[in-house]
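Hi, here's the filled form for the chain we discussed.

Project: internal
Contact: R.S.
Residues: 61
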Amino acid sequence: MIFGLLCNAAGCPIAAEVFEGNVNDAKTLTPVLEKVRHRFGIQGVVLVGDRGVLTSARIEE
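And the returned structure, exactly as it came back:
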């Protein structure tokens, strides 16, 4: 099981999601970003992640 946690700029949690345990992070990133944009009306985000998630293809998306 994998827990995804979204925090605001002050570090306060604002959303969480649970994923199956054997799922690549890169496959969960885009759907989660779309949910966040829709739910909170956010256009720009700042991502902190490792090289497995923040590839040039993900950044372009």
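Let me know if anything looks off before we file it.
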